C-alpha cells in the first residue's frame, strides 16, 4: 500500500488490532499491511464517521486496476454471506478498502512483488450513517435531502376518509 491516510472507527481499529495480534502469532504475510493500515489511520468515534468512509459492514463500489466495477459488503468473516456479495477484511482487497473515502485509491503491494490499484468509487451503504438517519427520523427530524412533495391518497394537510363502504366486506378469503 502507498502512503494513504485512512479513517477508521474505534471499533474497526480494535478489530484490526486483534487481527494483527492473531496473524503475528502465525507469521502471516499480511502483517506488514495490517501494521501500515493501523499506523496510517486516524481514529474517530463510531457516531462521528463521515458517510463516505468504508467501515465494517459497508456496501462498497470499487474498481481494481481499471477493471469492471464491483460491489461488495465489507465483513469480518464470510461464514454466512452469499457467494460474491461480501469481501472479508482479512483479504488484501478488503483490508485495503476499509477506512478509505469515496474517490480515494491505493496500491496494494503483495509479498510476491505483484500489486494492484484499488479505487473506491462509492460507499453505497454505511451502517453508522444508517443509524444516524434512523435516530433523526425517530426524533422527528427529516432525513437529510428527503422531502414529501405530494401525497397520492389525499392533498397535503387534508383529512382523509376510510374508503370502505357498508356492505363492502370482502369476506374471509381476502385475509
Automatic annotation (TrEMBL):
<dbReference type="GO" id="GO:0016301">
    <property type="term" value="F:kinase activity"/>
</dbReference>
<dbReference type="InterPro" id="IPR036953">
    <property type="entry name" value="GreA/GreB_C_sf"/>
</dbReference>
<keyword id="KW-0808">Transferase</keyword>
<protein>
    <submittedName>
        <fullName>Regulator of nucleoside diphosphate kinase</fullName>
    </submittedName>
</protein>
<feature type="region of interest" description="Disordered">
    <location>
        <begin position="141"/>
        <end position="175"/>
    </location>
</feature>
<keyword id="KW-0418">Kinase</keyword>
